[in-house]
């Protein structure tokens, strides 16, 4: 029971609590600036519910991105405190999403604010004001980047512009930096002489080499004044060329096209964010052009399409200047192929030369040399989709004599060892269909790849070597999580090889010390099988040193996480498995190619090298797929191939399948002679005794082809 004294003390504490100031939660009439201040305060003081409430209220306040950015940037204290608050909030689950949204809105607002045309115009006017006004104007224009160029050029070209503003514009243009190069270069041929000199000097001061093509054109323009021509030549020299007259203009455009294909960052501006169809902000780039009435204008292009669009434009300029330039042509084709792949189903009007023909037309009409060049570009830029397009073109234009170009790098050879499985299979099919009459570097990979495609029809294959049973079980689980079927595992390499499981592997997981593991990995490299070598933690550095330079080899410490393993597999280009339709396609194509090779037997390829995979496939499949593989085995002059057909026939439970397999075995016997084992002979005699109808007839045809003489027991002779 409370005493009078204790009751009085409790009431006193309650009264004090009621008098304390309560934490502010944003009300409907709270100003956005207060919501922002409160979010930052509560985030920095770890008061999560209050920070969350004020952050959500700020996001729902209807404040524009530009106004939000202004609240931050016009307040030096807020400009310093907000990044710290956001960094802390991102570590708190309840605030992570809110912090990300606030940060995104601020950044987008800064872009909107910088690119606001009214603000840019105001800054140009301020160039004629006080020193402080000029300083503020300079900062705004630099912040606006490429968006400041059109109004600055209009100001220069306007006779009513005060001289001090014109001077300020002239002095500020170089400060815009690399973002100003493309709009200035686009405008250069179209402005009056005195403004051409201003632009030329600005491009020289900025110092980026992608201005060179525009400067060379002006320097060689017969209608340009001597002053302009001299200024352009001096600018070219400042950009690094000693002799402007010797420059190959087509070569400059080719180099720029290749740089755009490589997506070199100095060739793009900060993205402009616009709302996409999904409602999410989408990054855009400006492609600049000159309009006779409107002057310098631009068209938005999604950033992922900007690169191939600009590559096509530059390569097309090179083609117009030098129609026989093979690099210009290959780059033009590569840009169009990449654009087609990235464009997909999007309905976008793009500023590219109007093509009356499809990208595949250009990829094929120019012959296999262009397809080889495009394939090398795709390999260098790790573009599997373009590589497959180039291989498709090569398959339609290249023959045995044109697969190899005779240069220092052979495209088809590199494609046969490319990390992406689809590219390797496509390359193998291209070679198989060409049926080369002699071997060439890398051709030894072709038949094993086709065999792998045949056996891989059921999934990507993996083997696990070394380690304890528990470690191998864990490794198998890791591999299966990425879509692999572990077809064999063992504690030593010899056992796995003896089981023939290493014949058609997509990846090997090797555990052990560095020295023993290295021996296995080196053997796998010779068969073009990618491998993950897992070593004790203290041997990681040594293992990486010893495997440096070995293609298709990743090294992991034994204690590495699943994420680290996934990253290692990804780095080898093996993380994305083919889907079922891909596997079915490549199985069918590989079987057809091997059948044709077995019939034609070109000197450059030996179909017998796929025998092991074919035998395993005929043992593990059924139905039409089994018969297609069996047809190839029946064309291979090898005893084991013949015997695998008979075993498959005995194992089949489908009568029609059994008849077909027996007939294929008989065809092999007739073609290559009797290679049937004594065990199979005995089994066949028993089989004939019990067989009836079509099955008995097929078995009889096989036994008769073997020409083993009379004496086969029949049902009547056995009294049945």
Sum this structure up briefly.
With 720 residues, this protein is of the alpha/beta class. It has 35 helices and eight strands.
Describe the model.
It is a single chain. β1 (272-275) and β2 form a beta hairpin. The model is unreliable at 1-23 and 716-720 (pLDDT under 50). The protein has 35 helices and eight strands. The longest helix has 22 residues, at 93-114. α4 crosses α6 (93-114) and α17 (326-343) packs across α19. The chain has a five-stranded parallel β-sheet, with helices on both faces. Strands 1-2-3 form a three-stranded antiparallel β-sheet. It is of the alpha/beta class and 720 residues long.
Strand order of the largest sheet: 5-4-6-7-8
Number of strands: 8
Determine the fraction of residues in helical runs and give it as a percent range.
Answer: 55-70%
**Ends apart, CA distance between termini:** 107 Å
Oligomeric form: single chain
Q: How much strand content do the residues show?
A: 5-15%
Shape: elongated
Q: Which segments are poorly predicted (pLDDT under 50) over 5 or more consecutive residues?
A: 1-23, 716-720
Reported for the largest beta sheet, the result is: 5 strands, parallel
Number of helices: 35
Radius of gyration: 36 Å
Which class do the helix and strand fractions yield? alpha/beta
- Mean of the pLDDT scores? 87
């Amino acid at each position: 029971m409370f005493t009078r004294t204790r009751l009085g003390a409790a009431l006193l504490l309650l009264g004090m609590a009621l008098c304390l100031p309560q934490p502010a939660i944003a009300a409907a009439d709270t100003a956005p600036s207060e919501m922002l201040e409160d979010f930052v305060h509560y985030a920095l003081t770890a008061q999560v519910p209050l920070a969350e409430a004020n952050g959500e209220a700020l996001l729902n306040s209807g404040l524009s991105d530009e106004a939000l950015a202004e609240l931050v940037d016009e307040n030096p204290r807020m400009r310093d405190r907000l990044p710290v608050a956001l960094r802390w909030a991102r570590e708190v689950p309840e605030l992570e999403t809110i912090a990300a949204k606030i940060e995104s809105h601020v950044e987008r607002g800064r872009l909107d604010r910088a690119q606001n045309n009214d603000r840019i115009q105001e800054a140009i006017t301020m160039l004629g004001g006080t020193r402080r006004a000029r300083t503020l104007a300079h900062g705004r224009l630099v912040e606006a980047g490429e968006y400041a160029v059109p109004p600055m050029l209009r100001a220069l070209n306007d006779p009513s512009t005060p001289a001090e503003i014109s001077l300020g514009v002239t002095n500020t243009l170089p400060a815009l930096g690399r973002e100003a190069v493309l709009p200035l270069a686009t405008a250069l041929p179209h402005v009056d002489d005195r403004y051409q000199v201003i632009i030329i000097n600005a491009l020289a001061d900025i110092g980026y080499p992608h201005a060179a093509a525009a400067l060379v054109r002006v320097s060689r323009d017969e209608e340009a004044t001597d002053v302009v021509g001299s200024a352009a030549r001096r600018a070219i020299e400042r950009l690094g060329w000693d002799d402007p007259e010797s420059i190959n203009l087509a070569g400059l455009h080719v180099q720029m096209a290749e740089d755009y294909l490589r997506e070199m960052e100095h060739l793009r501006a900060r993205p402009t964010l616009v709302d996409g169809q999904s409602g999410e902000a989408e990054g855009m780039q400006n492609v600049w052009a000159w309009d006779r009435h409107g002057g310098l204008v631009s068209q938005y292009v999604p950033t992922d399409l900007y690169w191939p669009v600009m590559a096509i434009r530059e390569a097309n300029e090179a083609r117009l200047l030098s129609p026989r330039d093979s690099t210009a042509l290959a780059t033009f084709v590569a840009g169009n192929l990449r654009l087609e792949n990235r464009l997909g189903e999007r309905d976008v009007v793009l500023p590219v030369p109007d093509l009356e023909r499809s990208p595949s037309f250009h990829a094929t009409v120019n012959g296999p040399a262009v397809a080889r060049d495009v394939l090398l570009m795709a390999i260098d830029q790790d573009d599997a989709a373009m590589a497959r397009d180039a291989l498709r073109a090569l398959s339609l234009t290249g023959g045995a004599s044109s697969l190899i170009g005779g240069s220092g790098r052979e495209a088809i050879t590199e494609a046969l060892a490319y990390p992406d499985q689809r590219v390797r299979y496509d390359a193998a099919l291209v070679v198989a269909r060409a049926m080369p009459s002699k071997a060439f570097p890398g051709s030894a990979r072709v038949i094993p790849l086709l065999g792998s495609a045949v056996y891989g029809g059921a999934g990507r294959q993996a083997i696990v070597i070394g380690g304890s049973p528990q470690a191998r079980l864990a490794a198998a689980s890791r591999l299966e999580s990425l879509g692999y079927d572990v077809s064999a595992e063992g504690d030593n390499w010899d056992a796995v090889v003896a089981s023939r499981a290493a014949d058609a592997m997509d990846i090997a997981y090797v555990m052990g010390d560095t020295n023993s593991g290295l021996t296995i990995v080196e053997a796998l490299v010779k068969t073009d099988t990618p491998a993950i070598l897992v070593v004790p933690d203290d041997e990681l550095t040594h293992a990486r040193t010893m495997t440096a330079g070995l293609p298709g080899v990743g090294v992991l410490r034994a204690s590495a996480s699943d994420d680290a393993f996934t990253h290692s597999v990804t780095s080898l280009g093996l993380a994305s498995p083919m889907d079922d339709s891909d596997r079915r396609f490549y199985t069918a194509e590989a079987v057809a190619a091997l059948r044709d090779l077995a019939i034609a037997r070109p000197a450059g390829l030996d179909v017998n090298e796929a025998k092991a995979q074919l035998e395993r496939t005929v043992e593990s499949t059924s139905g039409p797929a089994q018969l297609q593989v069996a047809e190839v085995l029946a064309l291979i002059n090898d005893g084991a191939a013949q015997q695998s057909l008979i075993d498959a026939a005995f194992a089949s439970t489908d009568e029609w399948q059994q008849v077909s397999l027996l007939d294929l075995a008989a065809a092999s016997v007739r073609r290559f002679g009797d290679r049937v084992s004594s065990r199979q002979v005995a089994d066949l005699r028993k089989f004939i005794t019990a067989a009836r109808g079509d099955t008995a007839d097929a078995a009889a045809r096989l036994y008769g082809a073997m020409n083993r003489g009379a004496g086969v027991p029949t049902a009547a002779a056995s009294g049945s």
